[in-house]
From TrEMBL:
Keywords: Membrane, Transmembrane, Transmembrane helix. It comes from the Bacteria. This is Thioredoxin domain-containing protein. The keyword Membrane applies.
Length: 210
């Protein structure tokens, strides 16, 4: 075998060895990322921050209408004690939540009154959601966001509560768009002729609009 042939074989071997090392490193990095995501999801507790869920149950999702805001939530969000506040749960790991944040960003500042957005999730993804929100909305990131959601017993995303003077006045089913949020704020309904959010009068079940 000529010298050129030997050199070619050696170079091919080195190339294959280098390629193998690269593949191993990539696989290892992907595995580390998956582990971190699993830990992050596990740390979220009962709040489903991975996927949106639409099987709304007004008897279990969110504290009952008429309930006072828990003390730990009131300490974190003292503004809930007076006036009206729309409290949103927009998970950083939920595509509809991210889209709603973008839609909110296109609305005039203050269009929804006082709004607080809970944004649980990994910092990088949460930053993307927060950056999309308009300046008038106060964002709350983890770990505080997940803690508040747990205290309010919210398990569905995206989700909205209306708090009036420290009391839960209404709660909405998961929202598909900013239009649904606007409808909830105005009359408590999440869709024309569809389900009606549990309202300030304390109805116990989701019904149908007339």
């Amino acid at each position: 075998m000529s010298t050129i042939g030997v050199v070619a074989i050696v170079l091919a071997g080195l190339w294959l060895a280098a390629l193998t090392v690269v593949v191993v490193l990539v696989v290892r990095q992907v595995a580390l990322i998956m582990v971190r995501l699993e830990r992050s999801t596990a740390a979220s507790g009962d709040v489903n921050i991975a996927e949106p869920t639409y099987d709304y149950d007004p008897t279990t999702d969110g504290l009952a209408v008429g309930s006072r805001v828990p003390d730990d939530v009131a300490q974190e969000l003292p503004e809930l004690g007076s006036g009206t506040t729309q409290l949103l749960l927009l998970s950083a790991h939920c595509n509809p939540c991210r889209e709603m944040a973008v839609q909110l960003g296109r609305r005039p500042v203050g269009a929804f009154g006082r709004v607080v957005a809970l944004v649980p999730g990994t910092p990088a993804l949460a930053d993307g959601v927060v950056d999309a929100l308009p300046a008038g909305i106060r964002p709350i990131r983890d770990p505080v966001a997940t803690g508040i959601a747990k205290s309010l017993e919210i398990r569905r995303v995206p989700f909205a509560l209306r708090v009036e003077g420290g009391v839960i006045a209404a709660k909405a089913p998961p929202l598909d768009s900013v239009v649904d949020l606007e409808r909830f704020i105005v009359d408590g309904s999440d869709s024309p002729g569809g389900r009606v959010a549990v309202g300030a009068r304390g109805e116990g079940e989701a019904g149908h609009a007339d």
